[in-house]
Amino acid sequence: MENKDIATPSRTRELLNKYGFNFKKSLGQNFLVDVNIIQKIIDASEIDATTGVIEIGPGMGSLTEQLAKRAQRVMAFEIDQRLIPILNDSLSAYSNVNIINEDILKADIAHYIQEYLSHCERIMVVANLPYYITTPILLNLMQRSLPVDGYVVMMQKEVGERLNAQVGTKAYGSLSIVAQYYTETSKVLTVPTTVFMPPPNVESIVVKLMQRPHPEVAVDDEETFFKVTRGAFTQRRKTIYNNYQSLFVDGKKHKKVIAAWLEAANIDFSRRGETLSINEFEQLYSELKNFPELEI
Ligand code: SAM
User: Fold this and answer.
1) Least C-beta-crowded within 10 Å: which of 33, 54, 118, 239?
2) 128: annotated binding-site residue?
3) Cβ pair 174, 9 in contact under 8 A
4) CB 201 within 8 A of CB 154
5) Dist. CA 157–CA 129, nearest whole Å
6) For the whole model, what pTM was predicted?
7) 63 a known binding residue?
8) For binding S-adenosyl-L-methionine, which residues are annotated in this chain's numbering (predicted)?
9) For ligand 1, is residue 54 a contact (CB within 6 Å)?
């Protein structure tokens, strides 16, 4: 029997020709044309008939189609209006898919979860992300306290490595800490450029992030906590003592106070941000209230 999967070069080409579609690089349009990779992504997400899926950027529906076969319902946000009639055509056989023509960074996701996924037992975000906005998308989703159980997402390899980095490694930074704060991360697989049409210029990786029941450390003001973590990495080669002089208002004038704050938190002032664990950042954060001179 003829292979009808959208995620094949022949079917993708057929749809491109039928609709005269041309890829927009500026929207990160690299479509998957390999069903095996898609199956691995879906297996890692442990999707079953009780799972609701949020997909970001369905493209022509290659991943969406396979998700629809396994999940209870799939809602997919696609910014490119030209893809909507194509998706309505390519996915016409699936009644459990909702396509939403909106920018994922602006959409009221909580409202759509309520509307389409409220009957699902668990909710997973599964996507081949538009790489140019991977970080804003993930931060935006994680920081909104949505009822999401986890994420299995494909992205540029370097970003995936940062999300999944251990303390003390080159890739470790403020993004690793945000990910660790909200989720437990693991690498699923690396993906060759050959499974995309057109092939991207960068290597890809699939990362799994499972939401923790409670954040890894207890902080009452997340915004300040993340300013403290980001502030340690402003210039990676510099010590935290130097970097923190740029974080605080009149930081250079408050060198002594900064040194006293670091000492109170038991953090040697000559250390670099990449050596600090999330628990050490939490110590810095909780000591901050004893140093009112240090204003962010
Ligand atoms: N899922 C498809 C696949 O794997 O073949 C397409 C993935 S492609 C890497 C990324 C998709 O995200 C494109 O379809 C693009 O138009 C869409 N996109 C880009 N920016 C977006 C945004 N801000 N909100 C929603 N979708 C977006």
Assistant:
1) 118
2) yes
3) no
4) no
5) 12
6) 0.95
7) no
8) 30, 32, 57, 78, 103, 128
9) no
